[in-house]
Specification:
Helix content: 25-40%
Shape: globular
Structural class: alpha/beta
Radius of gyration: 18 Å
Bound molecules: adenosine-5'-diphosphate, magnesium ion
Number of helices: 9
Order of helices and strands: EEEHEEHEHHHEHEHEEHH
Number of strands: 10
Strand order of the largest sheet: 6-7-8-3-9-10
Length: 245
């Protein structure tokens, strides 16, 4: 489903953030990405949809391949349609209701008729338990509710893969559970996803594969049992001791 080859990203002259990353992800995989902050996790995720343009490397999602060395606008547009991102800070439009936020890309990008977009929006708001808040503006929703709308918006465009960048780290502790439950439900329905998270226990329970990033590289790659229960890499051990399991 996803193939990343020799991905690197350097900001400016010399800030080498991603260093020759390669991995493959299968359909229905739930992949958690762990690692210290500043290690390139967000940059890696953003390269997958060219929100961040890689310095070198090839990204393939589904049947769309984009090579950093020679990419066209049309290829990038096609690549972006393969995935949908859920952001740490929700990034909802403040002047649109929950329903309008979910409809937005369906109407403007996918050019769906309004009635159809609305039907799809309601279907996914229902899925994340937000149907009764469909006409609420973001300012009238809790962070957890906004993030569930963010998830509905991502699901609505029918992506091949969902990309989550620390979806719960901006939330008050009591709101984390509702968002994790929503993500868990999607994982159980075999939604392909890559989830950058600090929630180690959640990653242990929900992911079938874990990537540990350190210093711009994938330092460990394995099953939750291998990575969390029996870590071999010294940096990974240090990381797991440092964060709360
Ligand atoms: P993580 O998500 O693992 O915390 P990031 O991918 O956000 O890490 O950042 C990795 C490194 O790249 C950091 O040192 C950060 O300062 C740097 N970085 C990220 N985005 C930019 C940018 N647009 N310009 C310059 N440096 C950046
Ligand atoms: Mg980050």
């Amino acid at each position: 489903m996803i193939e990343v080859r020799n991905l690197s990203k350097t900001f400016g002259e010399s800030t080498e953030v991603l260093k020759d990353i390669s991995f493959r992800i299968n359909k229905n995989d739930v992949v958690a990405v762990l690692g210290p902050s500043g290690t390139g996790k967000s940059t890696m995720l953003r390269c997958l949809n060219y929100l961040c343009v890689p310095t070198t490397g090839t990204i393939r999602i589904g049947d769309v391949t984009v090579d950093a060395a020679h990419h066209t606008k049309a290829e990038v547009r096609n690549l972006r349609r393969q995935s949908a991102m859920v952001f740490q800070s929700y990034n909802l439009f403040k002047n649109k209701t929950a329903k309008e936020n979910v409809m937005e890309a369906l109407v403007t990008v996918q050019k769906k008729p309004k009635a159809e977009a609305e039907e799809i929006a309601l279907k996914f708001l229902k899925k994340v338990g937000m149907l009764d808040r469909q006409d609420f503006y973001p300012s009238k929703m809790s962070g957890g509710q906004q993030q569930r709308v963010g998830i509905a918006r991502a699901l609505a465009v029918n992506p091949n893969v969902l990309l989550f960048d620390e979806p719960t780290s901006a939330l008050d502790p009591e709101l984390v559970g509702e968002v994790l439950n929503t993500i868990k439900q999607l994982a159980e329905e075999e939604t392909t996803m890559i989830l950058v998270t600090h929630e180690i226990r959640f990653a242990r329970n929900v992911a079938n594969r874990i990537l540990f990033m350190d210093g711009g590289r994938i330092a460990a790659d394995g099953t939750p049992e291998e990575i969390i229960d029996a870590p071999q890499n010294p940096r990974l051990r240090q990381f797991l001791n440092f964060v709360s399991k």
